[in-house]
Input
Amino acid sequence: MLHTFVAIVEDKPGVLTRVASLFRRLNVNIVSLTVGSSERPGISRMTIVADASPTAGHRIMASLYKLENVLEVDDIGQYASVSRELALIKVAATPKTRSHIFELAEVFRARIVDLAPESLMIEITGVESKIEGLIQVLNESEDRILEISRTGRMVMRRGQHTSRVLDAMRVPAGDAENETATDPEPGIAEEADLPQ
Amino acid sequence: MSEAKFAGARLTGAEILWATLEGEGVREVFGYPGGAILPAYDALRKFPIRHILVRHEQGAVHMADGYARALGKIGVAVATSGPGATNMVTGIATAMMDSIPLLCITGQVSSKVLGSDAFQEIDITGITLPVTKHNYVVTRAEDLAPALREAILVAKSGRPGPVLVDITKDAQQGSAIYDFAAAAPRPHRPHPMLRAEAESILKAAELIRAAKRPIIFAGHGMIQSGAREQVLALAERLQIPVASTLLGLGGFPASHPLSLGMMGMHGEAWVNHAIQQSDLLIACGMRFDDRVTGSLPTYAPNAKKIHIEIDPAEINKNVKVDVALIGDLAEVLEILLPHLAPRSGGESPWLREVYAMKGECAVRDIQNLPDNGHLYAAHVMNDLWHATSGKAIVVTDVGQHQMWEAQYYKHEEPRTLITSGGLGTMGFALPAAIGAKVACPEKEVWVVAGDGGFQMTAAELSTIAQENLDLNIAVINNGYLGMVRQWQEFFYDKNYESSPILSPDYVKLAEAHGIPGVAVRTRAEVLPAVNAARQRKGPFLINFLVEKEDSVYPMIAAGSALHEMIRRPDSNPLIETAEDR
Output
């Protein structure tokens, strides 16, 4: 099963290796991993999607915490959250075949971000299933996909819950566990922006 | 103290290294110099730190490891870049598997040439990433003190482990204002999943009160946490028998009536039977290693499990537990104990049952078999135990002799058995014993090593001679890689491929190092030789030529259940029951 972890880590050389090496050592395949800056300078945020047994979540989380550069870990799977992925898709397209791709993009709420005589580039944001939907439709039509670049999933919990990194850095641990926002807000279903 | 002596002064990185170590209380280091660490060695004489020159960097790490295990303080090993650093890896992995706090310092090529495949350059932080708790590269003198102080804190805190600090040559040669106090690391973040919730404590207490056939497991954590008093209180208050893991031996006094001895693959039969029949396991600072559990689906099938452990990643890793109390063992037990009233009434039926199994098993014990003129390793361990009253620090290697030691040397005190449990590193004993002796010069220290493992690190005999350490060395010499031979006998149709091993004449080898020694061939010679070694100031070696094809019993074959043990085939017809002698 797929697990989704958010790890708040120090922005230092070698931290990515340490995190990736941990999954390698546990013989767990990383499906996607995105890293970028967070709300605090010097602190990065990783979203890691890993394929492991349903019971492996606890151990992976506990092991991530053992890495000195990891400040906070959240196993997002159990909470209501927003999940997004960005993809760039380059499709072979001539002036004759363009218009139907424009239509597809419209339906999927994707954007055309580059247009060349023999190709065009689509930018699409959404949950994985939406992106896969577009890819599938393109594959099934006559359009030839030239390149795909996907960022992998990034997630954030819904509602009041904020990253505990501030607490973790200021308040003695123990108190940092007193999370109050575990009850998910009845937010909009993730499928809401899928094409109908 | 240097932190006062040098505070605010401009020092070289090399001086900052030693000043910081001195400030952290380090007085002994084990190491081997070389190009990239030479600036550090050049500055060493200005500091009150004793350097023990080793013969191989693996030895330096094992020595620091033995030092840490014997004393409960951090051990420090130093090596140069490249091969010096890679030679440390086995030692670091050994310490990692057994949770030993170590600081390993390596020299590194100058930061200007890092990544250029310079002479003796190696990516040691990359290599040691999976076998250290954490590691650092320091390229500037001003970063040294904070990195070292943080490294020491990381190594010692929580579940301890080895930490490596790789220091470039220019960081050693550069200079910075030294301020020990200002380099203090921020308080170490405890593992955020550490918790022994009130609810879990109550549930654990309830399980313990309800149990009819409980067993306490004493693991390495009992020694590391210093929880002897609390575990004794728990055992005595409720009259619960205590089984030990290999690394837990010595934690709970072996002569205590509630002590059962070692569990697992070569554990005593009564212990393994008791575990299988138990209805509650109270695991104290251990990790349910595969050598302890045997086949998992059949492990302690009727027992509820309480797991008290400092590392949350160990919970439910191998064995599913009913209650997990995550935290320092002594602290958790302090919270738990007030919830448990002393047991009233006499010896419980469960204890009587366990004691009966113990008597039954002793019949097969080789100690109780009639003398057939042969010298068995078990005899040596037994006599060594008697001669030293179970009080010596015994440092064992890996293999048959290690298991015989665990079975026949009854350890009374924590930190008196030093052995490589998790990684099973042959060659560990001799260097680790040097570390233990340097740590505890007033204590009697014995090396117990097989002829295979001894030859792996025998070069350290020269270190013993150079330092004139009062170490006693017992080589258990059976002419085989004994445990390999035993597996070949049991599982490979006695195909003794590559397990017979030639030894040099160990007495002559010792003498070549100026170390006296004797060879022992019969049981009658064991005690006199042991006593001669004990009486002599300075090192002494005994070459015990023991039975060649003896096996360690009982044994649980890989994949078998804990109660399905291979037992010593010949029981003694003359003795109906026997007590431990």
